[in-house]
Amino acid sequence: MSFLTLVGVEFKKIRRSKILFILAVEAVILWIPSILNAKMNFSMQAEGISPENNFFIQGFLGMAWFMFPASMVVGTVLLIQTERANKGILKMLALPISTAKLCMAKFVVLLTLAAAQILMMTGAYYISAAVSSGTQDYNFILPPLFVLKEISLIFLSAIPMITFFWMLSVCIQTPVFSIGIGLASIVPSVLIINTKAWFAYPMSYPLFVITSEYGKLATNLDTVQVEPIPWIPTAVVIAILCSGISCLCFGQAERR
Length: 256
Hints:
Blueprint: H1 3-13, H2 19-36, H3 51-85, H4 88-94, H5 99-136, H6 144-171, H7 175-186, H8 189-192, H9 205-217, H10 228-249, H11 252-255
């Protein structure tokens, strides 16, 4: 069985799951406060940022710090539990397929779900910006190319974090513990981005990136900017290490 065929099989397994529905609900919930508090964006002009930029950044700050990482924690556990609940993983392990290949196929599905949620949140942003534009008589809608650049940065920076959450879900058999550790690891991000060692903590990457962009848009705010070195090499090492551990541990408990 080719890797692409295996990925296709994994996508079929989640068609009737509630994962996409949960991700969509979270995307909608994220922007409700932004609509209700749209007027507050005008008070931020003293910081040197336009209302439309502040509307965008504030919404995605909440997403990058907690909503998106929490969704990935839940998504990874639901994805792995889809197999464990019906003992489907035992059937897959009985096939002449490399466990590492099976693990990576599921990880590709997880990355696709992450991209899908970011796109959902982006769609919800445009809807909320349109609604706020009507209620405030001001255009809050930003150019698509700018928005695409920002969400691409968030997605790419989140890959090491997602590999870490995937490793947790594979290595920890009890879903409650896996979710608990994952959610607990998100909270310190807001503190760690203010330290020099932020690049060693993958859960802080999305928040750091969007905070850095905030500093570029707000001329009167001074935020730390992203430095490719040592961030990118460290991120690559973390992603490879977590992926390697996941591949080694995948299916080991079931084989016993």
